[in-house]
Amino acid sequence: MTDGAHAINGSYAETAERHHPEHLSVVLKRLAATGSDKISVRDIAIALQDRSFGAFLLVFALPNLVPLPPGATLIIGLPLVFVAWQMLASPHGRVVLPKRIGDYRIDRQTFELIVRRLGPWLQWAENWVRPRFWFLESRSAERLLGIYALILAVVVVLPIPLGNWPPAFALAIIGFAHSERDGLGVLAGCVIGLATIALAGFVVFTAGALLNLVF
Fold first, then answer.
1. Which of 9, 39, 115, 170 meets the CB 3.0–4.6 Å disulfide criterion with 192?
2. Long-range contact pairs involving 158-163 (C-beta distance under 8 Å, separation at least 24)
3. Which of 52, 81, 48 is nearest to 64 (CA)?
4. So what's the pLDDT on residue 198?
5. How far apart are CA 169 and CA 144, in angstroms?
């Protein structure tokens, strides 16, 4: 085969991988099968490459979908702010972790157990989310989505009663759809996000109005 044919085939393979990436469940299973005794958070980010934005949005959004005591979102919501900011500002097109976080290591057996438990749920979701209508090819478009994700992440952190769940749900959809290159899924998450922003604004406005009436 000529060098030109190799170049064409290589370019085609890269394009196919970009538009039809491996499922997130497959990537995690392969990482869990590595021979290393421990897996660092940085290893996970590198394995996900340019899909790390979406995957980490999903991972950090999930804890915000369960009932939490007041003030807890200020802590568990901050990683969402960090990932959304990275989506906007990172020059590498993927999440760049602080050294201390990136060096944090998980026993391979523990990681395997997590992947085994998450696997069926991910595979079920992957039946609905698939590569289509991908409109975030350029870094500029991804940065615009990062601005929107950052707004939603800030709403998650705000101390609004029951106000963290809806934007976290929207970010989970956006994150998972982003990791699977599903443009329609990203748009669906954005529409849900708009509704949650409107809801948060209504709650804040109503609370302010009530306080004015009382005082």
1. 170
2. 158/73, 158/200, 159/70, 159/71, 159/73, 159/74, 160/200, 160/203, 160/204, 161/70, 161/203, 163/199, 163/200, 163/203
3. 81
4. 87
5. 19
Q: Mean pLDDT throughout 155-165?
A: 80
Neighbours of 10 (CB within 10 A): 10
Residue 182: inside a domain, yes or no? yes
Given this model, what pLDDT does residue 145 score? 95
On whether the CB atoms of residues 56 and 158 are closer than 8 A, the answer is no
| CB-neighbour burial class of residue 60 (10 A; exposed 0-12, middle 13-18, buried 19+) | buried
In sequence order, what are the residues at sequence separation of 6 or more whose Cβ sits closer than 8 angstroms to the Cβ of residue 208? none
Q: What is the pLDDT of residues 57-94, one digit of tens each?
A: 988 888 888 776 766 777 778 889 999 999 998 887 77
Which burial class, exposed, middle or buried, applies to 65 when counting CB atoms under 10 A from its CB (0-12, 13-18, 19+)? middle
d(CA 172, CA 24) in angstroms, rounded, equals 14
What is the number of domains present in the chain? 1
Phi/psi class of residue 164: alpha, beta or left (left: φ > 0; alpha: ψ in -120 to 50)?
alpha
Residue ranges making up the domain that contains 114: 24-214
Placement of tokens 């709650």 in the chain: 203
**pTM higher than 0.85, yes or no?**
no
Instruction: Kindly state whether residue 202 falls inside one of the protein's structural domains.
Output: yes
Q: Is residue 123 part of a domain?
A: yes
Is 114 a member of any domain?
A: yes
